[in-house]
Predict the structure.
Amino acid sequence: MGFEPHKVKRVYVHGAEKFDTWVDITETMDIKLEALRKHVSQLGEFDPEKMLREWAEEEGKEKGFKYAEAYRVMVNQDEEPEI
């Protein structure tokens, strides 16, 4: 139908035992929380703000970010090296 197959270059795994990549989410934390609150069918009246801010603060400490998400990144061996 005109679509070409997509080849995944990297997979970011959240919740891995050992992290190797941190993403600073300080500027987008409020947007993240707002988006999660839209999932009323899953959250009900539960407000995830306190829990998520604590998690993001903890993950950000190692790299000096106020809020971060930490991942283990798996790289496809066929990927071209970055120059």
Notes: The two ends are 35 Å apart (CA to CA). The mean pLDDT is 90.
